Batch of 4 targets.
Target 1
Amino acid sequence: MLAQKSPVRPARSPIRFENRQAPSGVRFVLNNGTTEDKPIIDSMLGGVAVFDYDNDGYLDIYFTNGAGIPSLEKNGPAFYNRLFHNNRDGTFTDVTQRAGVKGDGYSMGVAAADYDNDGWTDLYVTGVNRNILFHNNGNGTFTDVTEKAGVGGITSGGKKAWSVAAAWVDYNNDGLLDLFVANYVDWSVAKNRLCGDPGRRLSCTPELYDPLPNILYRNNGDGTFTDVSQATRVAQHLGKAMSVAIADYDGDGFTDIFVANDREPNSLFHNLSGKEFAEVGMESGVALTDDGLAVSSMGSDFRDVNNDGRPDLVVTSLQGEAFHYFLNLGGGLFSDRAYPAGLGYPSTRMSGWSIGAYDFDNDGFKDLFTANSHVHENVQFYWPEQYRQPNAVFRNQGGERFSDATSNAGAALREAAAHRGSAFGDLNNDGKVDVVVSVIGAPAELLYNTSPATNHWILIQTVGKASNRDGIGTRIKLTGQSGLTQYNQVTTSVGYASSSDKRVQFGLGADRRIREIELRWPSGKVQVLKDIAVDQVLKVVEE
Amino acid sequence: MRRTLLILALLLAAGRQVQPQCPATTQLASAETELLRGKPEAAAQVLVPLAESYPQCHEIILLLGRTRATQGIPTLAQDLLTRYTRLEPRDFRGFMILAEFFTGQREYPAAEQALRTALEIKPDSVPALLAEGVILARQGRDHAAEAQRAFERACRLAPGDPKAHFQWGVFLDNMGSYAAAGAAFRKVVSLDPNNPTAWRYLGMEFELAGKPEDADAAYKQGLAVNRGPRFDPLLAYHYGRFLLQVNRLDESQVQLDRAVELLPDYGAVYYQRAKVYLQMGKYPEARADAAHALAIPQLRRFTSDYQIYYLLATIYQRLSDQEQAEKFAALARTAQREQEQSRKASNLERMANSPAGNGSLR
């Protein structure tokens, strides 16, 4: 199962995080506008993006936010989405107004990428009643180009769908990023249902609402998009999408799309040579749990966790259901190995939202971080469970097993809160992946990675030429001095409703040089770099 | 059921006072013996002539009521038992037996009423409190608080009674209070370490608490004492299922082989063993067990159609039988969708009938 183990595995040291929100100047509180009735939308928001909007080499932060209920309008600054500029000294400045990205409507998620290949990262914001494409003007401001681009999240029935997440993906390898929009359920204020007792209402189960199709927009390369959901057969499959993650799971050179559905089978859209998609969740073994059950799948990440060259899937779910680790067996098959891998039992106590598979201790194996909280604010009236829960970190023990490393991860990971979205990236360029987490009703958390290990690392920033400029979809194989080979790919679609750094991070353990880096670009080009120095941000331009 | 009858028989024996208008004790005792031996017809043969000879003997009415209940003649049983409680309104035993009868008929409010009367007569009766708790719990969450009070009171009155803590633990488990249920079962096994079912429950609670090492130890303890009249046939199944989760495949198969012997009509056993075979790479064996599980009628399967279809799709994938894999994947999709729609419909119906417009919870 494990391709290879590191011959020079560094000594274990804890993974640690420190919440530096207070000194950072990031005063963002996720406001769900909740009401007595606890409508289902109020538990579902909170995407975060980390991306470098001004190309200064440092990651900035964007938070989505809620709105008033039932108006679903951002009727006050407390509901604005917020953009924080990284001042490169640990502090941030709120630049929302100047940038023009406060948004409209009840926002949910965010996906960041340079869709027009102009070198500036754009933003797509999903929401209940409004999806917005913000074009980055390259001067610190953005323009709402949703209407012109034709990406408003309207389904073939002519209705605006409730979109939770989105992914930028070049599905046809034409060098232009397309947009996959993940839709949840057919909800409106008029269709709202009540659950739980008056005075202590609960978010209704999604079973009470009809599922929706997802949307795939093809990028026309002229600032407009075409809805190809029907033509590509994406729209044939209904679901209750919570998150979307992308990877080429079968190595055929075309990026596939995974959608985590809430109490519905998950979907795996197998990309058939960039022309259409076959939904193969059931056939491949990722639709249901190992017990054949459709659980509350929430956030997801799609990366090679055991260094065998095949992207695996990790998916969070709610308390009692355990998180899932779909190991890619090759041949188009996956097996849910959460329990044998040691992830199942510890996670039965958690309700997970966002998740990311990153090498937090730079030992050459990707660990897991999950942002946790129960769905129901009033859960304690019904079950012996807690709404506010601490986040968790699971250490990868060499590709085959995980151990719950939360208790040693510092005080920040003992803080119970209503965590939701999270975005991953190296905020201070120290080679350690940090995490930004949104929290309903409390300040967002800026979890700086303070793990004591002095392992080496590299951050790879791809710049496509024939491929899309971000290089999204590029598969990277890295072999260190010790012979340890790792795999990853360029993506921003990570976790729950969130968007992470497009730069690809590798932990290198004790290796002081990198023997080889192989990049397989979406264009089909293969580029090989040899004898690379460690501990740097390496920009690789497609040749 | 048999254990409950035994308890009631002991209660009867303890409380019995031979009435002057009744026959000799030996005649009633012989009828009761037949009843306890599972021969209600033989008991009836003794009791019916006695009832004609001694129409004023209330004890015969009670015993005959129990006999009719055991025979599966509920109308007669209810008539006799109700008559007895009217004739002996201060006899605790009558109301306990009547409550037991109503419980068997799933007439929970009537059972609850009978138990309330029993508890008015003997407020500190632990068996009555436990029976009341069980009946209240069966009536759903709306009665959970009352059920909880009954169990808590029973445990307070009899802190050393493992039966009280066991029932309390089962209640907590059903309520999803797994940590508290685990504590209750720990108490049970400390008082009664030879109770295999309590060890099984404890193992399951440890699993839910995310403590596989403790679960393993609990299941092992249960297996070590799993014999005699309290033999628990589900223990091997649950331990086998657990061992599969922790990837101890050979040990899992041993337990599930045993479970198949013990529970040959229990579909979930074959389903779990199919999963073990799948992990072992024994695909033909996995396919055979999954197909066997599917052939078992739904009521005894404890696994839904789409779970088995999904497993079969996976098995056929591994067997490289694409056609069958796609067939079962399609069946899984359809069955899952139907179940989803049915759940939605029942949820909406419940909401329509709820005064608070209450929908079901996650």
Note: The radius of gyration of chain A is 21 Å.
Target 2
Amino acid sequence: MSENNEKDFSSLRQLLALKRHEVPPPGYFEHFSTRVIGRIKAGEARGESPFVARLTEEAPWMLRFMRFFEAKPAMVGGMAAALLVVLAGGIWYSGSDSNDLVASDQTPAVGMSNGGTMATGQPAPQLMTVASSGDSGGLAVTTNYSLQPVSSVFSSQPNPFTQPVSFNGGN
Amino acid sequence: MNMAEPAALPESGPSAAQLVEIDLIRRARTGDLEAYDDLVKRYQERIYATIYHMTSNHEDASDLAQESFIKAYQALKSFKGGSSFYTWLYRIAVNKTINFLKQRKNRNHMSLNDLDFNAEHDPDLVALVSENTPRRAAGLSELQEKLNAALLKLSEHHRLVVILHDVQGQSHEEIAKVMDCNIGTVRSRLFYARQQLQGFLSDYLKST
């Protein structure tokens, strides 16, 4: 049975002999063991530094970025100078920006009249009365609009853009 | 270089070569990389050849062979000596290759090695190409491509049996040890794989 099988497949086995003639490029095995040992050493070196090993797994881009600067002092200096310029520019810009803010703070946007009337800088609904209703036991909100201008808190002249808001508490 | 050279397993006591190997393993286990370098040199061709024939891709075989040796070094302390170092190493390489092929699934890309000078003068191959093949114009390169494509159609386990037996010349017993199965399974897999291959390559095989 076994011999018959061998005879049946003799032609196939002849063809399979072709596989034995497939060889890697010349000299391939001369450096094979060196590559293996090199990779083992590299792995051991990585093993000595858990931080680098973790970085390699979790943030390989960071490691590539750091390795980009290895043995490149000019690149490191240039990068540091660029960072300093950005930092100084940021400080200068933030200083000038805060001055602008102080100046803009002097323009009132919202005012409150002495009688509890709130004045806004927008042409908004003019009068809102909030009163509690004894019948319902809840809050009743009525909106009474008045187009009468009121005087600003900060000036004695009436401000045409501010409208009075009245808080007439029911209780 | 003959990639088909089967590994010689001892029947009696350890030979001088085996004693040297045992010493190399002992030293490598203590971290002696020079000793491990010697071990790699002993088996690199056979391990590479097996993986190459399984993948039909030189680059993949190169990576997998290196990774197999690296993994073997890392696992060397777990090597108890129950089987020969060669069988143990083979198992690592074969498992790694099968896992790789399963992950790759059907995305097979062949990157075949060149045929050596002796192929043109191999009497079996010359006869197969020039006289008995129905397609007489088929050259060795075409045969090589068709053969590799046919092998890639087999399942990983069937391909492995054919390669270890018919290409690398290992015995059924050795293959059973490497594949961790019984000899009957090896025989049946070999028969089935050959039948499959014969069907795939019928145009290139002489009728008997």
Note: The longest strand of chain B covers residues 114-115.
Target 3
Amino acid sequence: MEEVITTEKLTKRYGDIAAIEDLDLNVHAGEVFGFLGPNGAGKTTTIRVLTTLTKPTSGRALVGGFDVVKEPDKVKGMIGVVQQHLSLDRDLTVRENMEFRARLRHLGGSERKRRIDELLDYVGLTENANRIVEKLSGGMKKRVSIVSSLMHRPRVLFLDEPTVGLDAQTRRRLWELIRRLNLDGTTIFLTTHYIEEAEALCQRVGIIHRGSLIALGKPLELRQKLGCVTVETLVNNKETRYQYFADRVAAKNYVQSLPPDVKTIIIRESNLEDVFVEQTGQKVEDD
Amino acid sequence: MFSVFRDIYSVLWVDLRFLRRHWLRTLATSVVNPILYLVAFGYGLGQGISFEGFSYLAFVMPGIIALTAMNSSYGGAGLKLHVDRLFYKCFEEYLLSPISLFSLAVGKALIGVVRGLIASVALLVVGVVILPTLIVSPLFVLVLVSSCFVFAFLGVLVGLVAKSHQDMGTFGTLVILPMTFLSGTFFSLSQLPEAAKAVLYVLPLTHSSESLRAAALGQPFPWLSFLALLVFGLVFFAGCMVALKRTSV
């Protein structure tokens, strides 16, 4: 399987603090790869290094076979980046923002117009093409941000926390867009701290905690490794404990064997949050 | 070479779109200050005074054009870049594209040059009407354009290194404002003690004012001052390049 992103012992330090440390990662061509972790875990730093915005302290990162430090222009030519914050000029219209990106990517006049019209249609923003970005809703701004990064048909699209701050309905609409982009052949590298987002979108996930990769694989595989069924119990009315089992039968047997001072809260399917909790002793939103 | 010009224009294009939408407001805010200076100092305070053989109005006019070029070029290049970098956070789009840092620095400075020239030319039109003796020679234009470049690069540099809105304000108050009043804009440096002169010649606006005044009034041209102005421009440009390289850390 072709690997479109590879990192080897990738490290970025700010003084004594390691934002990411010895990160070994690979992303396959054509997949949606999710990078899951709490705020401050190193997700954005990883994206910044992979997109050439930040130089690593040590280690190596290749995107599309090109070294991000030695061949940044070749990397830039094949990636699209949607940053966590809205990186749009809010004084310009939707079309002007897109044209600006197209010009920076050297698209000629007629190709520029054709591509802008095509992308506006793709995300249903044709009617809003001449509206000032500042006056759009949060979801529309995010869609503009995404399509603006697609002007040059990137092979890899980096999305840094694409749905943060959006309501549930808008989030789901963006998920649909991300799925469509992936079906159309774009490899997607997505960071998120929303468990359900990683599970809904990603074929594989890497879980990062304090700059280090603590788990990597398909969501189902990671859950199976942990145990597909989780039993949450309350001990002495204070402490919540989690136990993982291969199936519901094993989980029910465990519950029946519990002493009277331990109350069962719930028996449910395990999720990626459980994988994170088991590895770190914390919840994803704790940090 | 063609790709460098194309990239410079691409960087400039986005700021031109903004200017096109807000041209009247931009022009009005750029010329209000210099016209106030002209009325207060040229007509009010300077009525009846002659300076180095010229009326005070004729003396002060090129200086006010120089400071207009400075303020509009510096602000035009620096403030929008600062807003894009720290508030809109869209500046990194340039760094994510395959354009060179040279094209980026020059493209960002050019909007300052354009705005500096618009404001200066608007004031110059007023100047030529009220002072028909003012000489607008190719040398005058050369100094004016060079001044706009110098202060636009200063604006880009400050816009790139400022960490907050307060930093921009502090630089304006501690450097730009004193330069406005002390750089021989409103008075002749020849009246000052040598020590004060030495300090004021470290300011680029001093060289811009002296060169523009000499060209506009037909005085012997201070080539050394013009050279000093160009050196300031080169230093500010080099500073921009270093600041841009350091944006990736």
Note: The longest strand of chain A covers residues 3-14.
Target 4
Amino acid sequence: MYYFLLYLNFIKINLQSIFEYRKAFWYGQVCMITSYVTDIALIWVLISRFKTINGWGPYEIMFLYALNLCAYSIAGVLLRKPTIALPSMIQSGEFDDILIRPLNPFFYTITREAAMYFSQLTVSAVTLTICIMKLQLTINPASVGMLILVIISGALIQGAIDLFAAIPAFWLIKSDSIKDLLIGDIRSFTRYPISIYNRSVQVFLTLIVPYAFISFYPAQFFLKKNDFIMFHPVFQYLTPAIGIILIVLAYKFWNAGVRHYNSTGS
Amino acid sequence: MYVYLEFVRKSFFERYVYRANSFIYLAGSIIRLMVMVSVWKVLLDSGISPEGVTFVDMMSYVIINMIVTTLISSNMTSRITAKIKTGDIAIDFIRPVSLKYSLISEQLGINLFRGIFNVIPVCLVALLFFNLKFPNSFLDVVMFTISIINGIILMFAINYILALCSFWLKTGKYNERYLRTLFELFGGTFIPLWFYPQFLYKLSYYLPFRLVTFDPISIYLGKLSLEASLKVITTQLIWIVCLYLLERYLWLKAQNYIFIQGG
């Protein structure tokens, strides 16, 4: 509770500092929205030109994309900035600062740097709505509840992956390339249904870096698909469990990292 | 000329110091290639699209695209914005080397590094695993080489003009992203323009972005007749001249406009 209030306060401060530079802020938001909309539009152009990709239609692919983007931006609000900043905080010794506060270092780090992902959230919410209308998905309290649950658990998975990408910095000091690989390139697999890839990639995205649970498996539930490749259909319900397990593991890993931390002394 | 080669060499070796990272970036590029390969494999499953494009064509398309986009990537806008913000730009005005060519040669150094440590290995992987298409005739090779070099010059001109615009816009990061988006949308780097709906194709046709990678690759794949290829090269040259004049004009204006806010 205490951390929640602290978090709200930090958000307020961050918003104030963003709105100091109002024009720059809007310029940036418009830019991000344009670039995401272009991305989605191009995927739509591609898939609708070929009708389907492995049995997934254009709006289904958009749904997949939006689900992923939504989880990504919620994780972003909570965790992205601290995880991006962590290596440089460790490098510069700024992390010392966090350890001497009378607060849990983990919660302090993530609350201190609340980032705003307005544009991504807007784009993903609008796209999800368009897809739900176009695909005429059933809307009832249960399905809406499931959607919210899936998005939140997806955000937990994404957040845990973000943390796993950043925490090695406690040992390696410089680990930007691991981050780029995990959050940038490996994530690009999830734009399309993972059933189009080679088997080893499918196993990798399900069991090792479980991006498939953010959008691919839950999307099958909403779209009533049966594209489980070699896995059991029960996987469509596993997202919440995986999310909780991963975030707990990430927290443990963080603690191990903090214990290992030696100030660089600079 | 020698000075600028030195710039290229310097910025190349600056990257070379951190070459350990390049293995991870290489893994990233291979992943991106894998994604594109899988997508086109599924989409062109039946062998050939109504436009007469085969999977082998698409593989060559994706790979040449990767090489060229690496060679033309640019962060000149960010660098010039940083210089304007700190006031360092004042020094560049009095230096005996041109700002334009030193920026471009530094960029070439960075891009060459990525070309050697990233793109060449990816190409080797591609050559091992896929069937690639090679041009039909020697004439196509010549035309392709000329048009791709023009394309690279063209994109450098666009990037440099964007960099000059930061004298007025005073922000870098987002402008680079805008340009990337435009290039992706109208340049056919993600989906070749063959597959675009009519109106989008028409729109792209009148913009210079398609001349950078799409048209040269079409020549490479033998999709364009000799006249069409010559037309592409002429259009490229016209664009290059126009952009050169625009850039000279902006540079003159910028010199008068610049206001150094101390350092």
Note: Chain A has a mean pLDDT of 86.
